[in-house]
């Protein structure tokens, strides 16, 4: 899914100097943004409080939206570079088309994974007909320098590994958790999982000590290390953990993201991840000139224009501020 803010800001993220080796408990509220089709979403990454968790650099939670009487999601063709998009649905369906010729319908429990490499464009829409509700998360993974200029490609995985704990049913979206590994192609040490939690759970889930982690709630009711996690907030757990304590006050759902702290500094703007503001400006120019990012066929409306770049120069902000 695109970042469709009309005035996106340049952000410098990554690097390890601001990463504590100790566990943390930092609850950061997200912000509500519009993605351009009148559906507000809750943006948990990046925010002023936290810009990356491992290689994860973008996280939106949307819905549940009642789209029975409307078109649902309608995101016209737009570009990406230097990242992977991870589409994860709780309810509904999403029709994906991209400039490499892939067309796929993503359903709940399916992993739609698009690796942009040096550049790709795609569209996303609710198919016709579509289910009444649309609910899910959209995440981006920053590609390391050795992979960010590679060939673009798309993967659809309809069967993902699962793990179980008392009162917990987990699906591994990316990387490996508790011995279960996702088939999605990863380019950095990473972890991502959907945790379906029963009422009155009290459990500890194993984690990698060298990873940093965070959780977001797509349903209320979960308490993580004593901290209730409301919808629309990100609870950063830090590094150095062997496990995490989860209990519930009602049946709930959490998305767990983590990975080895991303060593490289990245620059994010609109739908581009690069290393310098000059790279970002060049990518914008090429998209506007209809170069580099290919053509998406089959979408019913014109492609998106890139916003104007901000007039002020890039100000390094690091991982957290």
From TrEMBL:
Residues 193-290 form the Pirin C-terminal domain. Residues 1-19 have a biased composition (Basic and acidic residues). This is Pirin family protein. Belongs to the pirin family. It comes from the Bacteria. InterPro entries: Pirin, Pirin_C_dom, Pirin_N_dom, RmlC-like_jellyroll, RmlC_Cupin_sf. The lineage of its organism: Bacteria, Bacillati, Actinomycetota, Actinomycetes, Kitasatosporales. Residues 1-21 are annotated as: Disordered. Residues 41-141 form the Pirin N-terminal domain. It comes from Streptodolium elevatio.
């Amino acid at each position: 899914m695109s970042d469709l803010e009309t005035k996106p800001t340049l952000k410098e993220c990554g690097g390890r100097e601001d990463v504590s080796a100790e566990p943390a408990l930092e609850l950061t509220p997200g912000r509500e943004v519009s993605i351009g089709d009148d559906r507000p979403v809750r943006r948990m990454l990046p925010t002023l409080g936290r810009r990356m968790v491992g290689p994860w650099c973008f996280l939106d939670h949307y819905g549940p939206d009642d789209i029975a009487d409307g078109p649902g999601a309608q995101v016209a063709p737009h570009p990406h570079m230097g990242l992977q998009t991870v589409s994860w649905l709780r309810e509904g369906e999403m029709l994906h088309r991209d400039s490499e010729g892939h067309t796929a319908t993503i359903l709940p429990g399916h992993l739609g994974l698009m690796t942009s490499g040096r550049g790709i464009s795609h569209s996303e829409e609710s198919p016709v007909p579509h289910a009444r509700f649309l609910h899910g998360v959209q995440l981006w993974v920053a590609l390391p320098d050795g992979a960010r200029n590679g060939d673009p490609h798309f993967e659809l995985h309809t069967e993902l590994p699962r793990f179980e704990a008392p009162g917990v049913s987990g699906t591994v979206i990316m990387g490996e958790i508790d011995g279960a590994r996702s088939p999605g192609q990863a380019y950095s040490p990473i972890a991502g999982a959907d945790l379906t939690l029963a009422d009155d759970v009290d459990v500890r889930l194993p984690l990698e000590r060298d990873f940093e982690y965070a959780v977001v709630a797509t349903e209320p009711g979960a308490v993580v290390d004593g901290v209730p996690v409301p919808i629309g907030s990100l609870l950063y757990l830090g590094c150095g953990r062997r496990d995490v304590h989860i209990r519930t006050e009602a049946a709930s759902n959490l998305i767990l993201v983590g990975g080895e702290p991303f060593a490289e500094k990245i620059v994010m703007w609109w739908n581009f991840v690069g290393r310098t503001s000059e790279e970002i400006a060049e990518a914008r120019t090429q998209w506007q000139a209809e170069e580099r990012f290919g053509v998406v066929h089959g979408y019913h409306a014109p492609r998106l224009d890139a916003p104007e770049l901000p007039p002020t120069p890039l100000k390094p902000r690091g991982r957290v501020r």
